[in-house]
Amino acid sequence: MANPAKSPTEETLEVMKMALERRDEVFAIVDQATDWDTAIADLANLFGVDQFLCASVMNLQIRNWLPSWRARVDEELEKHMATRIQGSAQ
Fold first, then answer.
1. What kind and span of H or E run contains 65?
2. pLDDT (tens digit, 0 to 9) for every residue of the chain, 90 residues total?
3. Alpha helix positions (H), the chain
4. For the purposes of burial, counting CB atoms within 10 Å of the CB of 36, is it exposed (0-12), middle (13-18) or buried (19 or more)?
5. What separation in angstroms does the CA of 39 have from each of 31, 36, 45, 88, 89?
6. CB 43 within 8 A of CB 57
7. 3-class DSSP state for residue 62?
């Protein structure tokens, strides 16, 4: 059985995880961007996602780059993925 579509929360968590894993590239994009829209567009291009998902990356606070918070994102993403996959098996 095919997996159901990802929830908006799962998609957002995936983008945040990518940003946390590629933070040097994210910071470089933000440093070089002339405005919010340019940063969003460049992040969307980097991650291969829609621009609206990249707003969550731009809204991350510095404290959210700590390892403990990154681990929390991983845990939440795993939970959402498991729920989606479990739901498709029923």
1. none
2. 456 788 888 999 999 999 999 999 999 999 999 999 999 999 999 999 999 999 999 998 877 778 888 888 889 899 888 888 887 766
3. 8-21, 23-32, 36-47, 51-58, 67-89
4. exposed
5. 9, 5, 10, 36, 39
6. yes
7. helix
* Amino acid letter, 16: M
Query: Could you give the C-alpha distances from 36 to 22, 42, 71, 75, in angstroms and in order?
Result: 19, 10, 27, 29
DSSP letter for 61, please: -
CA distances from 2 to 7, 49, 75, 87, 89 (A): 15, 21, 23, 11, 9
- According to DSSP, residue 59 is labeled T
Which pair of tokens denotes residue 52? 């609206």
**pLDDT value at residue 59:** 92
How many CB atoms are located within 10 Å of the residue 8 CB? 10
